[in-house]
Amino acid sequence: MEKEYFIPKNHLLCISRRDFVKFSGMMVINASILGRRINELGKEEVTWGFLLVDMKKCQGCISCMLACSLVHHGVENPSLSRIQILQNPYGCWPDDLTIAQCRQCVDPACVAACTVGALAPDPQFGNVTRVDQEKCIGCKRCISACPYTPSRPVWNFEDGYSQKCDLCAHAPHWYWDESGGPEGKKACVEVCPLGAITYTKVVPDQTREDSYSVNLRGLQWARLGYPGWDLPLLDRWLAEKDKGGIR
Amino acid sequence: MNGYAGKILSVNLTNHTVSELPTRDYTNWGGGHGMGSKLFWDLVDRSRLGTMRAFDPDNVVTIMTSPLSGTLAPGCAARTEVQGIGAQAYPYEWFTRSGFGGRFSAMLKYAGWDGIVLQGASEEPVWIDIRNDTVAIRPCAELSLWGTDIKQCQQIIWKYVMGGADTGNWFGAGSGRTTQLPAVLAIGPAGENLSRAACLIHDAANSSGQGGFGAVWGSKKLKAISVIGTGSIHVYDPRALLQARIEQVRQYGYHYDKPVSKSIPNNFQSPPGQAVVWEIIPFFATRGGKRPAACIGCHSGCRRRYASGIGNEAVCSEAAFYLDAKSRQFIYQATDLLNRYGINSLEAYYALHYCKDLHAQGILGSGKPIDCPLDFSEYGSLSFIRQFLAMIAYGTDGFGGTSDFGQHISQGIVRAAQAWGRLEEDLATGLLPYPYWGYPIHYDPRAQLEWGYGTILGDRDINEHCIYRLKYLGGGAYFGMQRPPITPGQVVDMVTAKMVPFENDPQMLDFSTDNMYSEHIARLVCWHRFYTRYYKQSLLFCDSRWPDFINPYAPHYEGSTGHIEPLLIGAVTGETMSFRDGITIGKKIWNLDNAIWTLQGRHRNIVQFSDYVYSFPFTTIAKDWLGKQNGQWQYISVNGRQLDRQGFEAFKTLFYSLQGWDTTNGWPTRSTLASLGLQDVADELALYNRLGSE
Description:
The structure holds two protein chains of two kinds. By secondary structure, chain A is α+β, with helices and mostly antiparallel strands. Chain A has one domain (17-216): Alpha-Beta Plaits, CATH 3.30.70.20. Chain A has seven helices and nine strands, in the order αβαβββαββαββαβαα. The longest helix of chain A is centred in the first third of the chain and has 27 residues, at 17-43. The radius of gyration of chain A is 19 Å and the shape is globular. Chain A starts with 16 loop residues before the first helix and ends with a helix. The model of chain A is unreliable at 1-21 and 27-44 (pLDDT under 50). Chain B is an alpha+beta fold. In chain B, a hairpin with a 2-residue loop joins β9 (171-173) and β10. Chain B is globular, with a radius of gyration of 24 Å. The mean pLDDT of chain B is 95. The chains are: A alpha+beta, B alpha+beta. Chains A and B meet through α2, β2, β3, β4 and α5 of A and α3, β10, β15, α6 and β16 of B. β2 (75-76) of chain A pairs antiparallel with β15 of chain B, so a sheet runs across the interface.
């Protein structure tokens, strides 16, 4: 009986060795070119904007995904969402859940991989980098080139083109009075009921994977019984206490 | 068809064939329960309903979504409705319902299906693999699924369906791609072994508990249904849906900058994760990191996930199942065991305490009149509860050996008590607190009138907290443990104004003893049956978040129920309907359900509570029921009262009369059915001499 209910460690959301190597390589490249690109892009009048998330707070309702597909496509479809929430119901907090939002990379591999110039800053939409559907030939190179897992460019299999987060710059089914885009609102930020997504104009450290994660919990969150702190060692110790030796 | 996928999957487990039914033939039933009842009526052999039992291969089981499933409609996008002849009720195995949250209904819609109908029974254990339009009935033997617990089963299926793809990455599913885990609804060992306490469970703890549908699946040799979908749900007016969502959550949802109370349980304005019983009590609370865990689209998830991973997503009675364990950790671990075996928590809770009481009386134990292999000196330990749950799940001594006791409690504690020759006596004294249809007590019918009446006039413990939650006003839980700054009279006026078609009858909420058999309370029960049948069980508004009657964040504290429901439905489907229209559809569904029960043998003479409800007074120290005393609306005590048999008989007559049914037997009449567009149902009842007299 004891053996039958031994609970194995969960491997669902582990980073594979391949992903680690791929990610590390891209970080090195990003670090080497970061300063240069900021200067260049500044000249090109790229509008910076970044979604930051609190993966320790998110409740996994995927409302952000539903809002994303709704404002862009007028339908509810998580597969068409440009932000993805991945979760394992049996996982251990905080590793049970990952928010995969486009990082709006300073030197985006997806843009570099596009051979037809379909991915580029779009002056019509606040200079945010987006996919021109008419130019996209559906080669999926941008998807393969993305150094992150899951890839942030999303394959729209319903219409046969790539798409990526445009910070809601071009959202045909937009509802708010204020427009979307780098200077406006973002559907995922507005819809998230817990305030687990925010937006900044400050460029996050491109050399660190966790620079897009922030603590959005605050005192009231702690008052509700959730950890407002970021103390992984304490969390781990307390979790071991709760396991009570069974695992 | 905005909101709907357009087709319903029909699975014949006997022949291992699948086919499609057009959803458009059923949309006038809304979705969920309405569609399920109509499908059951259409597909079951009605000539056999009088003798058909839960494990009959001809039992039809429906698993239905709603047009709001998988959308941004807050607190109403994630429930799934399960129906069929249930295995739990005693002595009559009624056509019944259950439901669960999570991701399943949304994923089914994304896969292009509004629901699933199961017919027949397989000879070999099978599971159903749905990947968008591609459906396969696969033998469990391929993956060694039969015999696995709920967690093992889901993990095996996830891996298989994802085809070895990295979790946490995109993978191909039919014609599309997704990052989401397949949504799996499964039975555990309890269901496989036909325990009548068996659940269907999805993810860690989304349980379709009441009705014993786990055992029904077990009888059909169906281990699991897995679904992965990548398609789109079309929305009639995306902007209107966003507007309704944003405004509803911002206006009526929990205000982090203006917290009224952190302990508001199960309301639209509740903070996230507050329905986990062990988390509410500081001594029992988990100590490490945690997050709220929400069903799809919910603005405030009621569950939690923990740094230990133990007890993830358990809520309500699951989390209270073993609170008297010797160690805090055993509480969470016992809950995990419960969910991995796939056992109904409330049934297990009352079975445990009944056995404990009989042991204390020297009746149950090793070598006692009820010979039981459990060592009660170990009560509170993990090994004790593990053995107890294994007995229920496997019908053994808990270690794989044969045991009459294990066989008995595996059949549910009411049937066990019958086997031990104790049922009549213990239902008369209340030692076995099962007041209705073989279901355990939830909220006492002597106090919470709409709950008790609704259950005995229906098929199962209703588990609908719409009216019950008004007690929180008296207890103060809405307003930071303070009584609200509105009077009981204002509450009554505000709530009853929305109770169409019986609106503005304040006496409907008078829970005082003088009013307990009145036509006003009969109206309340009617309204509650209609409201829940449509809004909660067909449109699948979650019981944990709806209705929104009284809301501390709302202007004048008046919640959004009445105006928000039609807005959400209209935005998604394009249908223009009023709140009252929904109540009317609820009445139609309730009438069809009663027609089915009538064909099963329902008669007013058997609509009776257990004897103890009439013989012993209800005791409480609470003083938080709405009631009128000395001409004034107050929060009153209902301590010391019991039901009166004559009073209840008079109440049934009033209720049947309000329904337009034959008061002599409780059967539907032709005129009532015809007024609801159910002439064919009237014809069918007439065919079997079950049509009520006018």
